[in-house]
């Protein structure tokens, strides 16, 4: 790409940046937690439509994806799970195609009194935009969209097909991205601007979610000795799961990408609920666990060990021995994925193009990083032979209180993305 | 009392027993859990009214009781907390007066699939009536009412005033019984047919309820090491509370009534809730604790130690040290009570009268028992100088699944109660 075009694209990003921040702020104001993404998706669809993209909005149909590799089990129906894709069809089709992917779903805000300002009333302060989902990952959606806008502002369109995806379900299953694959959206590369501090993600972990349902023997607490407390029965099981977590993290079990990390795999007790009455020995409890696995680690083997650990521990409990825990898989069934293991020409070229764009936008070499989370990249990389580049702005406190995203970082990512598109896809006249 | 009258009263109980079981069944069908007692109370009021008792139904007003000894703090308002008292005013007033007390509130049923039949569709099988609240303590309410009916069937009324109380809130605060005291209901003795297997309760424990609110430092679980899990932070605190429980139960701390019991004081983790999202380190958790204390043990001292244990343990947690748990008292603030320590003439006479009635009804001597629960007896005994006799039928699985009450036991209790009333109050012509 000519230096002149790089400059023009960066200038166009600067030119449009106030609008981009306003867009991000508007998008972050939608409380698009799981099941509540529709209004945010309608906003995205309107924005794409206004720009002339070919629009495809559809409700995810489990029947169309449940047989596919990468599918994660869900407890609820998908009545309100709407994906939005805006397509640009290149007239010349001389360049490579690209998926620009981002997720619209955000995690719950948690107790509102622990936020300095309301999570869905975004505010800008000292160069940061605060709000739930601002970083994870609405800034990425904004970056994708305004990078394309920058090309348009230069009188150009990508010289290959672009599929702009705003998907649901990234935070719990990935079934939104999977549904895009199932619907036929394929390209030569994918870019996902998840908020990893302008680093290129070279490897990501797999994630398994499961619930453990425990029963107890309820009695009046006056006779607690004759009962079996379903809440406290969880504690040794949780301890045993943490022991398993330590084993999985042992040096000899780490693949090269994670060799330097003592504790890449985190087991999280994310939710718990149990009991109905303070003076009754609780009859039930349920806790929700997230456990990570390494790229290459088998989900089935991991599940087998998880189940063994839970049931073996339960058998040490006089009551649970005869009333074993129920293990319910209700979300992520995600394999790990390592872009670094993709030896294809497309992968090498895409990384090189991004590296170059990043250097121009930031003045720094592109840092490679193996992350301890999962992203939707796995669907493109593992199940569609598409190198998936995860590369997005710096954010802080994602999933926490006072989540915030660095707006100058979003500006740099947007510039790098615009240049990457221009390079990867080539350009044609609007 | 003449043998002839005893026989007639027992015969009248037998005569009315089918109606009594039908009444108990109808009453048990009302799902009168906390906040949902109104329809059951309306039923009780109708039954009392139809029998000619002077009716007093009123909503508990916290302002009228919160300054009184024995008051327990509540989190909710009392918009729907209705007490029902039916009074019989003796024409001759030659005998002693009596409060017949029972509570209408029942504890939650818990998961319905763990019941053999629906908890609020009572059924009779092999001499047991099954249903939530059938034993604890609607059979007692039935026994009180049908004992009075037996007198009436003999053409008699009690020769002293009778205050038939159907109260709310026994299962969480006792504020229903307290409100009866505050409204002026006083008598020479009280009888509460709680389901303790036809034994006379000579001592009961105090009970304190508290909630522990914990905060955490939420992060994306990918960075769990930087977060602080509010759910798992509960575990060491619960362990420390159990250590405290062991100390309080130590032989040297037991009063004479409980000297033979290794573990009279039970600490129960009855409820827990925490976290919003499986892949977020949870920012909050709350657990509910019931702890018992011995008669004579100070509530304030107990609370001081509970708070010390919780806060000391929290200070060992790097995050909680700077974000200490909040301890909320939201129910029982109940002192222990020992009828056995009541050296009044009324107490001795009431126990003797009950002993005699019990022997006649059952053929056995009255067994005395110190129980590991609390009852509303404390209000009469501690705050109104009224000996309170807790004496009711045999029930099983109270607060558990498939709660049931022994109908023949209810029959015996009803007979004993009828004879006790005849003896204690004397009789007059209807």
Automatic annotation (TrEMBL), chains A, B:
So what family is this one in? Belongs to the peptidase M20A family.
Q: Which Pfam families match?
A: M20_dimer, Peptidase_M20
Q: Which InterPro entries match?
A: ArgE/DapE, Bact_exopeptidase_dim_dom, Peptidase_M20, Peptidase_M20_dimer, Peptidase_M20A, YodQ-like
Q: Which Gene3D superfamilies match?
A: 3.30.70.360, Zn peptidases
Any idea what this protein is called?
A: Acetylornithine deacetylase
Q: Work out whether the entry's keyword set contains Zinc.
A: yes
PANTHER family recorded: ACETYLORNITHINE DEACETYLASE (PTHR43808), PEPTIDASE M20 DIMERISATION DOMAIN-CONTAINING PROTEIN (PTHR43808:SF25)
Provide the alphabetized UniProt keywords. Cobalt, Hydrolase, Metal-binding, Zinc
Q: Where is the Peptidase M20 dimerisation domain?
A: 203-316
Decide whether keyword Zinc is in the record. Answer: yes
Query: So which domain of life are we looking at?
Result: Bacteria
Q: By its UniProt entry, which SUPFAM superfamilies does this protein fall under?
A: Bacterial exopeptidase dimerisation domain, Zn-dependent exopeptidases
